[in-house]
Design brief:
α3 runs antiparallel to α4. The chain contains 5 helices and no strands. The chain is mainly alpha-helical. It has one domain. The longest helix has 49 residues. It starts with a helix and ends in a 9-residue tail after the last helix.
Length: 167
């Protein structure tokens, strides 16, 4: 039983490290979004994808270990949560480690969710700014721009480029 719990704790600790990495990336992404550095944003998004893939693999292992714990305790693994496992374990080092890593993951995920929400708001603001500027440029040229309804914008699209190729 101890080895199953040790393996579960190790998987959770590895997940915790990866979630912390995602949080650090989210902090850096804020700066990059503000600076409008699209190349760096692409790199960070790629790094997030790699980390997410690693987390997904660890999640599979975590579910396998929870199933094993459920078998040992005679519980269904479908509804078995980490907090339930903590309650099932008698006082031990694994119980303490399991509680600590669980709290750390929850805390990191809350911070990550908050940071991602803030980043999304920044991106939405930047997109609105671009949309306003695009509409302003088009209004100066006398064209009506409505990017969300292609039928209204059909004459604009058919006119070709707005740049003078002869220059």
């Amino acid at each position: 039983m101890a080895s199953i719990l040790e393996e579960l704790v190790e998987v959770l600790e590895n997940e915790s490290v990866l979630y912390e990495e995602l949080y650090l990336i989210a902090i850096e992404k804020r700066k990059i979004i503000i600076e409008n550095d699209l190349e760096m944003l692409k790199r960070f998004n790629s790094a997030e994808g790699i980390i997410a893939s690693k987390i997904q693999k660890l999640e599979i292992k975590r579910l396998e270990h929870i199933e094993d714990v459920g078998i040992v305790f005679g519980k269904s693994s479908k509804n078995l949560l980490i907090k339930d496992i903590v309650e099932l374990i008698k006082d031990s080092e694994e119980k303490q480690r399991l509680e600590e890593v669980s709290k750390k993951i929850k805390s990191t995920l809350i911070k990550l969710q908050d940071r991602n929400k803030n980043n999304k708001e920044l991106i939405d603001s930047a997109l609105k700014y671009v949309d306003v500027n695009l509409n302003l440029i088009k209004s100066v040229s006398g064209e009506q721009v409505d990017n969300y309804q292609p039928e209204k914008n059909k004459s604009y699209l058919e006119s070709g480029s707005t740049f003078d190729k002869t220059q």
